[in-house]
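<context>
A single protein, sequence plus fold
<sample>
Here is the protein in question:
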Amino acid sequence: MEIGIIGLGRMGSGMARRLARAGVHVICHDRSDAARAAIAAEPNVDCVENLAAVCARLQGERVILLMLPAGNAVEDAIRDLLPLASSGDTLVDGGNSYYRDSKRRALALSQQGLRYIDAGVSGGVHGLANGFCLMLGGTAKSIEIFEPFARILAPGAERGWLHCGPSGAGHYAKMIHNGIEYGMMQSLAEGFALLAARPELDIDVGRLADTWRHGSVVRSWLLDLSADILKDGSELSGVAPVVADSGEGRWTALESIELGVPTPVITLALMSRFSSQGGSDYARRLLALMRGRFGGHPVQKKE
């Protein structure tokens, strides 16, 4: 078995290592010299300097996994691979691409004899050890070709991966997965903020979080991560209260509007992230000035 992997970031490098350690020959490329060097010593991994070398080293009908940021990076990689690819090759987009882009790419590539799989991937930096959850969209034949690799990448050969449906279904499932993740994270963060706001009750939030991990209905991997953070607590003080969003939450909110399906928790979690990024600063300043004008309340000036 052999596979090409383009993109050796946190997820891509972990997937390359997991496949290689299972005996798969991995031909990989990343534009970063440092990223290639970090994995070059891994047995069964060959790092090459460009896409042409990836295609040249793979034999027969090739399977190439793209682990790149959504948007232009994926578009550019597919464009550059097209003259190098042959009929019957399979391109797998394992990034967080917009599902409508995936549907468009699948149709365009099929007209050139190429197979395309949109693969939603979850597992983060822990995927190497624990396996990656895979949500796959594409034709039955495409999934059949990729299945041996999916069985290795997933937490188990028979679990943690799914052919969700036709092209677009994998990335649509991952988009909703990440929207749910937004809501779960927000709920945990707000709950622990309330606990910390009552110091007179002397609740050890770290020990409470750890207690909830065992038998509680809110036990989850996100709770596990929260417990690890809260056990010490000192890490919190050095972190700026800014939470980034990578796109999937926005797409989920837009989808809920288009379909008329209410998603208040997910949408409010997204709005909270916008607020942390300074998106509500203008409105807050205006509110402060309005309150000062109608009630004579003091307005705090910037330091």
